[in-house]
Amino acid sequence: MLLALALLLHSCQPAEPAPTYRIGFSQCTMGDAWRQAMLAGMKKELSFYPEVSFRMKDAHDDSRLQRQQIREFLREKIDLLIVSANEAEPITPIVEEAFNRGIPVIILDRRTTSKLYTAYVGGNNLEVGQAAGNYVGSLLRGRGQVLEVLGAPGASPAVDRHQGFVQALAAYPGVQLAAQLHGDWKRPSVIQHLPALLRRHPEVDLIFAHNDRMALGAYQVCKQLGLDHRIRVIGVDGLSGPHGGIQFVEDGILSATLLYPPGGEEAIRVAMKILRKEAYAKENTLSTMVIDSTNVLTMKLQTEKLAGQQQDIQRQQQLLQQQRDTYASQQTVLYVLAAALLGAAGLGLLVWRAFRANRRINRQLGEQNREILSQRNQIQEFAERAKVETEAKLRFFTNFSHELRTPLTLILGPVEEMLSSGPSLPPAQRHDLGLIRRNAQRLLQLVNQLMDFRKIDVGKMPVRAAEGNLVAFVREIMDVFERPARQRGISLRFLPAEPGILIWFDGNILDKVFFNLLSNALKFTPDRGQITVSIQRVPAEHTVRVSVEDTGAGISEADKAHIFEWFYQGQQSVAKGSGMGLALALGLTRLHQGQLTFTSQPGQGSTFVVTLPEVLPQALTTQAAGPVLPSAAFAIDEDAVGTQPLAAADSFDTGPVASSEALVLVIEDNPDVNAFLVQKLRPHFQVSTAADGENGLRMAAEAIPDLIICDVMLPGISGLAVVAQLKEDWRTSHIPVVLLTARSAPEQQVEGVQTGADLYLTKPFNPAFLLESVRTLLANRARQREHFRRQLSVDTATVAPQRVDQKFLADLTAIVEANLSRSELSVEDIGRSLGISRVQLYRKVKAVLGTGVTDFIQGIRLTKARQLLLDDELTIAEVAYQLGFSSPSYFSTSFKARYQVSPSEFRALHTTAG
After folding, report:
1. 22-37 pLDDT tens trace
2. CB atoms near residue 278 (< 10 Å)
3. What's the maximum distance between 2 C-alpha atoms anywhere in the chain?
């Protein structure tokens, strides 16, 4: 019993304590939110290292004080020093001294003038300045005046950001740096000195401030001077929280902010690698990105999610501490029991049971520790991916989709016309046109599906599988590649093990997978090479394998480890794609419960194998109404297909003379799209064109067209501004406007409609739909011209003398009065109700009344308006909508034009008279 007791006491001894590290952090200042975020990041990361003793000293922007504090750290014999220098030159000697003593030194954010340091963690201020310059040049469309608000004079971030900004602006000759202001990194300094500078430079279009605090001060000055709607403000830092740059961008205070990570977490990670003798990188440059209205919500959600996960970790740590406290208290009980056992051997069994309980607690603590470490690793991986991928993804998606939509309009439009209006086309030409249309539609859908990998990340990509023939499905996809392969002398072989293999699969997903694999094989296979696609069952595994083998150059050993990474294009000098295809194919294959693997020999080719289960889970299957066919998902690379460029717009046939007197004004700066619209509209309408917004406004005011088709992205005045000016001018406010644009985001469409546009069409558009939309708008939204009759009712001299005509007028009046509230009431509607055509109705009314149908309807409405205005319970707006007017302003204009008094004046006169 005594021997067992001795062994028990020995096993209950506490474990060896973990090594204790002492880290000193010399901070130049804690006077701003960015520095506080840096310290918060350090503390958050330090929560994973309880064995670390961490001390921070604030120098309050005093280089002399900072040198003194670093010497105090050296006297305290710290194990590692982190320095964020106030000024580079004064701090460099003391940092070199610490390094020469053998103390690891990490330079954080602001560099010193020496290379004698262990590691550097921080952003690339030169890259920040370059990113800001490129964004400013793009935002101002290559023309404008910029005012730069710099940080403290001589500070390395201010110098580097200015240098990068100037370098980037050199690519935009039309963007001039009008003035500079040293804001000393503080908002009050900007508020004090900026107003006078803006008065001396009223031509400034944009202000670039070196941090978000100075940017906020610049915005407040602009708002005070009434310039906040004209001058855009851009800052740097991109912090989260209610007072951070991300919130300023979301609130519309700043046009954009550039992410400049504080680097606190990364500094602690590098420090722990150094202290634990692990491999580390000397230069740890944090990436930057532009945060504007296109991605601010995404960034805000990511930061909020990270904050929530950090809170979960803290709760787990609190639980772990509680368990440790429990463990410690139970250890105390065990020691008490062990002491009691020395006097009473009969309690030995109780001690043994307590020992078993102690072991169970240790196992629970171990499992909880592993779970916390796993969650921390997941957070680290997510943060790294977000930093690297977010900027590249969003910038790529925006530019790529915008650039593709305009040329696709000029491809799909003529092809649709030829296929629909050319029944006499030879079969070969019709087949080729169908191939062009199918691949153009695939390219269009590629633009819309570039966000698929984001959906995969957040689990928003659904799988809707149906039973189908996989062999026929793959054969259908290969048909698209047959002709480009034949043109290059490439043998395209299809070797299915069986004539048909029925499995459950989602055609929309697998279409993208196989298209990417075949497209890659076609790109990298040399002329007169060979591509082999084989399909076979694997009964033992209940799977089906689809392999795509090529005889290309193969994949180098250096590229094999990265071949499935997003946007990775390999180390070869010739990059033939965006670097997304294989990564998207892998994600979609896994989403489909399958696997994507590859083998490759340099110089001999590569083989990609897609392994799919024969049966999917019930939750992923749906009963299909027909066979599964490939969806239009990806277009073949232009280089692989060898397509020819479109003919010039001048070669379009202008078509026959217009059959309508309606005048349509087209405002479009792209010559090809302009010519295409003229070609489609001229057979039906009179057409005038303008190449920019200024000329378009002038022509609209002079010619008063019946309808305007306008592009959004125009040189000088934008399409949205054109619509706003058209609607504000009484001469053109009645003209329906159709906006054409490549900007397809819902918020952009809402913005276009809010400016007053009657229709918002995204490129590429269907020509037939555009034509019918124009016709409908002309029928439903045509406003009354200034030459219409202004009398209240039909002239008594024109009353029909015959009873037949009297009945016609009675019927016509009854139909109009029954539909007074319908703002879309048209001549065609009345003609259908009377059983006659539109032309017959016009002729009949003209012959009987000597006026137009629309004028007659207007007269009845305005006559009714005089009666309703006498009712004080109805507002003027209610009267307008009740009588079918599209808006109260239009009703007031029409009423005053007819009676020379506004509705409110009319009501006031009769109320006074009453």
Report:
1. 999 999 887 788 888 8
2. 9
3. 133
